[in-house]
Amino acid sequence: MSILPQANLFRRFGRRLLAGALPGSCLLCSGDSAPSLICAACEADLPALPGALCPLCNEQTTHGERCGACLKEAPHFDRTSARFRYDFPVDRIIHALKYGHQLAVADWLAGQMLAPLTTAEVDLIIPLPLHYARLRERGFNQSAEIAGRLGKFLKLPVDRSTLLRTRATPPQAELPLKERHKNVRGAFECRGDFSGRRILLVDDVMTTGATLNECARVLKLHGASTVCVVVAARALKH
Q1: Which of 137, 139, 138, 148 has the alpha carbon at shortest distance from 200?
Q2: Model confidence at 12, in pLDDT bands (50, 70, 90)?
Q3: What are the tens digits of pLDDT across the range 138-192?
Q4: Considering the entire predicted model, what is its pTM?
Q5: Domains: count for the chain
Q6: Which CATH number does the domain housing residue 172 bear?
Q7: What is the pLDDT of residue 155?
């Protein structure tokens, strides 16, 4: 059964995110989902991205052309691949990983992220790093968990230590859109040489893309030939 048409399941859904899903039980509706984390009915109802997207940032466009923002100033990353639109209940699934510590969600998300992914020109995976204070508080980096699973699926190496977040910044969600690029400027440091490497940069959600763009800028300053972004979900303006 799907969660979407059944409002009376919402409260129970919230409790399940805290308590953890039972084996073979759908994370969203509690129905039988074995062997998957999400049952087929709920998966079919997950918010899809529109068919026409900017090839650089995956913002919605009319015919799949570059969006106005990327035409005005192209991002430092070369391409974005996103699996879902960031909306209910995908936001709850991601929150179950980030704040509910349900690491099985990382396996499911990584499997889903393979669908839109083009890896012909990728030879190294790097997760978006967390500042050590946030990492200590949360106990793990959700992007690193997803990246590790992607590395196993794709048989590609994962580098979790060369790109670092060296400056703590206020959460991007708390800031106006215009201030987000300034907020993360200089927040990342690269302690290695990526000359000629084709990097897949992994995160859970892209909103404005400011943080991923700053990471891509730093990676290219250290020699990366291409930086392609893959995220579980993309928040759209409209």
Answers
A1: 148
A2: very low
A3: 899 999 999 999 999 999 999 999 999 988 775 555 555 666 666 677 789 999 9
A4: 0.86
A5: 2
A6: 3.40.50
A7: 94
Of 145, 225, 223, 230, which is closest to residue 191 (Cα–Cα)?
223
Residues 12 and 66 in one domain: no
Q: Quick one: tokens of 138?
A: 């949360």
Please choose, from the candidates 190, 200, 96, the residue with its C-alpha nearest in 3D space to the C-alpha of residue 147.
200
Task: Report the candidate in 136, 133, 131, 145 with the shortest Cα–Cα distance to residue 98.
Answer: 145
Structural domain that includes position 195? 48-234
Question: DSSP alpha helices (H): ranges in the chain?
Answer: 10-19, 40-44, 68-72, 90-98, 104-113, 132-138, 142-154, 180-184, 210-221
Q: How far apart are CA 114 and CA 153, in angstroms?
A: 8
pLDDT digits (tens, 9 = 90+) for 112-147: 999 888 777 899 999 999 998 888 988 999 999 999
Give the separation between CA 181 and CA 78, rounded to whole angstroms.
18
**DSSP, res 126:** E
Apex CA 92: angle with CA 167 and CA 180, to 5°?
30
108 and 27 in a single domain? The answer is no
* First vs last C-alpha separation in the chain: 29
DSSP state of 168: -
Same domain for 3 and 117, yes or no, is: no
- What are 190's strand-pairing partners? 163
Helix (H, G, I), strand (E, B) or coil at 231: strand
Q: Are residues 214 and 144 in the same domain?
A: yes
CB count, 10 Å around CB of 193?
11
